[in-house]
Amino acid sequence: MEARSISRYIKQSPKKVRIVLDEIRGKKVGAALDYLHFSPLKASYVTEKTVRSAVANLMQSNESTNLDPDSFTIKEAFADGGPYLKRFRAASMGRISKLNKPTSHLTIVISDDS
Question: In CATH, what number is assigned to the domain containing residue 82?
Answer without folding.
Answer: 3.90.470.10
